[in-house]
């Protein structure tokens, strides 16, 4: 197993770092977090740099990058902001599902504007009573002649209210059978008649935004159904591994930033005539933080390498998602302790990581679901 980067991948990493330094300096990140505003200019810079084209095949107008390339980009963006990472990754995951399961006409219609940065996409699965239990969803589409009529309410949809966004909505199209056989993935414009959006007041990740979506008699054509009627379960499964790998990469990038912030503070903050980092209690805390982040990254890169090599990596992906998310939350909490009141102050970025990290163990499969999955793969039955 070779976990080293090629020359091209090293160049990719360095170029994304420079792009983020140039277009998302600390004061810009703080402003968008404080005001809850979407980073449209940064999104455009990503598109112009080819970051949306990266994971798509050349036949679909992309650059043919691998999952490792995508993880590199995710880690570097999240180092600057886990919130901004969500603005990048959400649309990519949705687009890859269209690339895998969409018709040639659908790919030709939706992928070019996505790759060019003119169209955004947001995934919508969860509901008030349907989170990890996907089968409990109640939003549905009913056939009406040549069209389908959508009714229901979705929750926790990241980026759903951003301009020019296409909602990728999972819903029931045949409630008489299980969700594995009666669910579909449909594409709905977020400004279509009958769509109502409400931005929710969340603890963190305020720039990309989290939304409640109501659908009241929204009409769509069958050309807006990806993977065919009742093919939604296959769409979810097709993108699950890449989504969780890149989610883990984002957690690792943000956790790296936390350790760097804490270590820099410990080198410069003096108490009792010496830097606090020279105190064993603080130094050992930061050493443990660094070690745990390195372990999370090793799990993540191992999983990415196996997927890139065409191997089954479900166990590694689940462990990477679990450990990286909990590591980000843990080191952000420790970073707050090290920085004391400075960490608690809204003028410094540690509090943002503390808030943003709290969703990492929930989104893209909660820690509890990851543990269930890992245990199941070990031959253990979990109730």
UniProtKB/TrEMBL annotation:
This is Alkylation response protein AidB-like acyl-CoA dehydrogenase. It holds the Pfam family Acyl-CoA_dh_N. The keyword Ribosomal protein does not apply. One of its GO terms (molecular function) is flavin adenine dinucleotide binding. The keyword Nucleus does not apply. InterPro entries: Acyl-CoA_Oxase/DH_mid-dom, Acyl-CoA_Oxase/DH_mid-dom_sf, AcylCo_DH-like_C, AcylCo_DH/oxidase_C, AcylCoA_DH/ox_N, AcylCoA_DH/ox_N_sf, AcylCoA_DH/oxidase_NM_dom_sf. Residues 6-118 form the Acyl-CoA dehydrogenase/oxidase N-terminal domain. Keywords: FAD, Flavoprotein, Oxidoreductase. It comes from the Bacteria. The lineage of its organism: Bacteria, Pseudomonadati, Pseudomonadota, Alphaproteobacteria, Hyphomicrobiales. Its cofactor is FAD. Residues 122-218 form the Acyl-CoA oxidase/dehydrogenase middle domain.
């Amino acid at each position: 197993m070779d976990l080293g980067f090629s020359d091209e991948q090293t160049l990719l990493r360095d170029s994304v770092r420079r792009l983020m330094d140039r277009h998302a300096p600390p004061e810009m990140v703080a402003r968008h977090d404080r005001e809850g505003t979407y980073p449209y200019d940064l999104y455009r810079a990503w598109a112009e740099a080819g970051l949306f084209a990266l994971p798509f095949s050349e036949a679909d107008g992309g650059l043919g990058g691998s999952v490792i390339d995508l993880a590199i980009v995710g880690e570097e963006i999240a180092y600057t902001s886990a919130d901004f990472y969500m603005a990048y990754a959400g649309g990519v995951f949705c687009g890859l599902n269209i690339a895998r399961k969409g018709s040639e006409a659908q790919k030709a219609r939706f992928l070019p504007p996505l790759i060019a940065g003119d169209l955004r996409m947001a995934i919508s699965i969860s509901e008030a009573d349907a989170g990890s239990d996907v089968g409990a969803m109640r939003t549905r589409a009913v056939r009406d002649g040549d069209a389908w009529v959508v009714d229901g309410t979705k929750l926790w949809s990241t980026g759903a209210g951003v301009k020019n966004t296409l909602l990728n909505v999972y819903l029931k199209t045949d409630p008489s059978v299980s969700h594995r056989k009666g669910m579909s993935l449909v594409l709905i414009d977020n400004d279509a008649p009958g769509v109502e959006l409400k931005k929710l007041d969340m603890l963190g990740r305020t720039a990309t935004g989290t939304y409640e979506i109501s659908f009241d008699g929204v009409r769509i054509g069958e050309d807006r159904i990806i993977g065919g009627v009742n093919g939604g379960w296959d769409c979810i499964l097709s993108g699950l591994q890449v989504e969780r790998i890149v989610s883990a990469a984002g957690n690792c990038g943000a956790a790296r930033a936390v350790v760097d912030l804490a270590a820099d503070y410990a080198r410069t903050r003096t108490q009792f005539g010496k830097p606090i980092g020279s105190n064993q209690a603080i130094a050992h805390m930061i050493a443990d933080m660094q070690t745990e982040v390195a372990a999370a990254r090793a799990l993540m890169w191992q999983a990415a390498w196996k997927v890139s090599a065409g191997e089954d990596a479900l166990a590694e992906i689940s462990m990477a998602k679990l450990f990286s998310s909990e590591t980000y939350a843990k080191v952000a909490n420790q970073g707050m302790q090290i920085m004391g009141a400075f960490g608690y102050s809204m003028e410094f970025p540690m509090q943002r990581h503390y808030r943003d990290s709290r969703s990492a163990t929930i989104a893209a499969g909660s820690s509890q679901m990851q543990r269930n999955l890992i245990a199941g793969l070990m031959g253990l039955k979990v109730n």
